Amino acid sequence: MTKPISEPDLTRLLERIADALDRANPPSVEEQDLAAADAFVWHADGSRLAPVPKVSRVDIMLLRGIELQREQLLENTRRFANGFPANNALLWGSRGAGKSSLVKAVHAAANAENPGTLGLVEIHREDIPTLPALLERLRGAERRWILFCDDLSFDGEDAAYKSLKAVLEGGIEGRPDNVVFYATSNRRHLMPRDMIENERSTAINPSEAVEEKVSLSDRFGLWLGFHNCDQQTYFDMIRGYVEAHDLGIAEDEWKPRAVEWTVTRGARSGRVAWQFVQDLAGSLGKRLD
To answer: For a 10 Å CB count at each end of the chain, is N or C smaller?
Structure first.
């Protein structure tokens, strides 16, 4: 006579069956409203785009000392937003120089000229291998999209750069016409020199191995370099913030404090200027709206 299955055993059996069915037939990704916001963050683990109601950005005219880069990236973005060909862009150079701030500001400026036509999607560096899945979500959408990866670089045995290279230009499907890729990096070739040199020393054909690594940056048609600013540009940045936020402090009062601030940081950059302004506003009891 067969022993009846106890209720706990039956529950566990049913759970295993349900798990097996879920694995065999994974739930389809829900359709998302890609017009719900102007900016999204890609979450690879759930294959979803999370809307960002308010993007942390700086007004484009407050970005001082990078006027040439600003105009070049803005013109490229305007063309793209208007339906014309545009290049992938690599913004490279020193830390805190305004690379990521420029991308977000340019998106806002171009989108303001043609509201609703241009979306921004941020993808994290570790999620680069899931780019094909993200592009599939955006391919054919009515809006045009800037894919943005901040602080992009590759180290050691990281092979994710091959996925990115194929997506940008070399894949069968290639990059969709309604998508352009903007990345920031501290490295011009996205890889450290020792990684490139290691390829040269260990490969059967050193020149081909190095070319494989360096050719990734060639997939970006627009290269914009960012460098450390001089003291006058540093002052111009702070002056712009002080006036824009109406902090009500004379220049001869904040300048000595700004010099002391940069000495303690050991550098001058847009990031250092903004950090000083935040400290200045706090000391004055003013808000930065």
So the answer is: N
